[in-house]
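Running this now, will post back.
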Amino acid sequence: MTYDQNFTVTQPTRIRFGSGSVADLGNMVQEFGGTKVFLVVDPGLKGTNLVEKITAPLKAAAIPFKIYDKIDPEPGLSLADKGCTLAKKFGADCVVGAGGGSAMDVAKAISILLTNGGKAEKYLGLGKIKKAGVPKIMVPTTAGTGAEVTFTAVFINEKTKSKGGMNGDPLYPEAVILDPVLTVSLPPHVTAFTGIDAFTHAIEAFVSTQSHYISDMYALEAMDLIYQNLGKAYANGDNLKARSNMLMGSLLGGKALATAGVGLVHAMAYPLGGMFGIPHGLANAVLLPYVIDYNILGAPEKYAVVADLMECDGEGLGAKDAARGVVDAIYQLNMEVGIPGSLEALGIAKDKIPEMAEIALTVTRPVENNPRKPSLDDVIGIYNSAMYGWD
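Update: finished.
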């Protein structure tokens, strides 16, 4: 590890962690000066008792709120625009995002639009947000996205059918409440692909060309927590210790990606979401072993560290050979938690691969962060490898 690197770390989000901590939501809103809450809720929460658990502390504090639950798994920019219109009409001065990454991304964007004005499309890219938003508090109910501590909100641009992000420090939430109890009812399949998504954040940040001592610290702890606990949470959703460890792993994975960025897995997952509506975490999970197999040449020593963390048998092997154990270990973990082994299983047509590859290479920041610089033919080759999977 090199300690004389130049890097900047911004970590403005207040973190409240622990079972039952959602009860503090009302007090937290008031601490940030909020008097009317616009509550962006993942539609997957409807029909569960989670909405009541989240609104109960607002009711107890006599804080008016309006629920906005028209959120898609892969949200379009129009959802942020519509939400802003509703929030403004309601007179909201605080936004709460509850659910998975989609709800939190929409909530972050609405906060920014309330103070900056204009349409969401205007803010796609890096550094285009000039003003801080109204206070925004995130309440994740999945252990996967890390969106609660990142400066990014990702959307599908309905005009271009492409996927892209708003990026800038004003998008960092002011606070997050991480209550493991809220994740207990998460279905096994969602537990699986959100968990592998969080692992993807951590491992891509660890091998990123922008990685540094602090991001590596977050990434390694995140990978260890997720690898040791995902199977347990998948097998028994009531295992609160495993749920707590997964939620912490997701948080640390989010911090790792916020400080070092992600890589080619994310770039290649974007077309799967934009063109086919595949949930982001599931797309990442399916692609992860294939991209690592390609990437090893660019960062064998770092992947060898991950191999050791994942308890792969690399004794007596050089870094490159030891690193290949990661590919097998992740592929096996995917199989254990029901993640499909191929793009074909997701319904992706092989003749779309060239178009997908061209789109992936336009996701410039993750491509630039990747430890191996891919050509168009390289990306096509990875998609082809993932098309039918390995035996």
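DSSP finds 14 helices and nine strands in the chain. More later if anyone needs it.
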